[in-house]
Amino acid sequence: MAEPILQVRDLVKHFPLTHGLLLRRRVGAVRAVDGVSFDLRPGETLGIVGESGCGKSTVAKLLMALERPTAGQILYKGEDIAKLSGRALKAVRRNIQMVFQDPYTSLNPRMTVGDIVGEPFEIHPEAAPKGSRRQKVRELLDVVGLNPEYINRYPHQFSGGQRQRIGIARGLALNPEIIVADEPVSALDVSVQAQVVNLMERLQEEFSLAYLFIAHDLSIVRHISDRIAVMYLGRIVETGTDEEIYDHPTHPYTQALLSAVPVPDPELSHRRERIILAGDVPSPANPPSGCRFRTRCWKARELCAEVDPPLAVPMEFAGLPGPGAHPSACHFAEEKRRVARM
Ligand SMILES: Nc1ncnc2c1ncn2[C@@H]1O[C@H](COP(=O)(O)OP(=O)(O)OP(=O)(O)O)[C@@H](O)[C@H]1O
Ligand code: SF4
Ligand SMILES: [Mg+2]
Questions:
Q1: Which ranges carry the ABC transporter domain (predicted)?
Q2: Is this model's pTM higher than 0.90 or not?
């Protein structure tokens, strides 16, 4: 297996919680990301999935150095991004680009498509000589399936799916190695989502890109991901290949998320057990003791409140090779086979 290009180790981001208007006293912290580790290899896709507020976008911003970590490391080819600044950081940033969730707000309405897609060349002029940029932008539009003749149009003249293609073209401009896509299709109609995901798959192949593909819905990432990490309240609770996560999940939270994914076959859908999680997601400013999922877990016992389960292959599976033996942060991990494949 190839060496990882990105190694994230025990990443932590706490946002201070303050009180008072004038004398802002620190009264606590929002533990948005609280000990996250994963690797990303060249050309692979890691899907990150979890409910709203679990820390997905904060992970993305930390990787892009738009936020600085409270603790932990983000190693890009062995070098810690969190420790870089100035020119060294700029050089790394060129290789890690982002595609944002909302193509309606992430494109400047007063800029033409040509200026939006060519903007990275203003920040990194060494990437393309001035005289060649217009032609490069045309090529990028063509690559993402847009008519290069549209180069002088404005974002409002495009549909949601087309706008996201513009966002992807901008992400490709500097020929990056990694694209962090934060819910790139969540704001789009279901019919358009598949087109954009297919485009991203084609581009991955064509440009040997590694993707960190963030979504809140497990059904979207399956198609594109080689591996998946499921997040809950600032932590990864289960991680594995698509087969391990979708067909052999062992963490109750993953099992609950999967039970909510629609199944096209009405007969199977009828037979399937739907797990409805009780209660709301606890505040990341005050996470539960022990296992963070215990306040909503139907299997919780005393041990769960006392001991924080590590993200590791559960003991029950350690000696058993097979798809159940993958990291799962649960004291009572067990396989729950799904009735249907997606
Ligand atoms: N700049 C900030 N200051 C304080 N709290 C923040 C800040 N950014 C994020 N948070 C908090 O951190 C937690 C994680 O937020 P984040 O945006 O990473 O979640 P998410 O998984 O991307 O959610 P969504 O699916 O809604 O996009 C939330 O409780 C959020 O309110
Ligand atoms: S450790 Fe306990 S509370 Fe947490 S997921 Fe497992 S059974 Fe549920
Ligand atoms: Mg988000």
A1: 6-258
A2: yes
